[in-house]
Amino acid sequence: MAGTPAWKDDFPISWADDHYVTRREFTKSLVLVSGAACAANGTLAALGLRDARAAAPEPVRIGTVRDLPVGGSRVFEYPGPGAPCLLVRLEEDRFEAFGQKCTHLGCPVVFRAATRKLHCPCHEGYFSAEDGRVLAGPPPRPLPRIELERRGDELWAIGIRR
Amino acid sequence: MGDRDSSLRARRAERAREMSVIYAVMACLVLLILVQFLLLMAAVDGYLAGRWAGLLPAAGGSALCFAASCALVRCVVPRREGGPRCG
């Protein structure tokens, strides 16, 4: 013991021993990871239930039919501020509206009247202006479709179909 | 001398059996966690897309995996008297 430094008597546990993880401890930590994944899944399910039970959004007036020429488009917010949507007029009596955020990474899509497509310029994603389905590019899902109602000369957004 | 050898062999065999159980449990846990991550990915995708119908089954599947993990880990934690035994 004469050659042993004093600090070794005070701190007899070596760094390596202190950080040694046994197989059993590792196995128990795997169960913690499993519990965390289960909790995350449960949280998502709870959030989904809450959203599904949420009241339907109030109808919002977008504008009048005369405001938008055939082949034109217009941005509006629905169901509230911070949720941009795009109204397009495909034909004289045909209007369609979609959420404007690309389902890939959330860039705003724009309407290309010549090709009747919605284009995401960030990563060259293309959606159909007829129904919002993905035509090309990386977007994984169609654009959410906004349900429209015509009240006389006015266009109203009345719901979202995903 | 013979008794000591046989006792040593028995201890080694017991140790080898326990190690096999631990590795088997670890492999099963890793597989269960992989399944849970797949379910989580599907749930996140469904939530972002507004397809809420698949969220509850995914959460149920994940809970089943977690329950299986808890049952499996009881095979490798130090056993108390009368505790469950595996293998």
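The radius of gyration of chain B is 20 Å.
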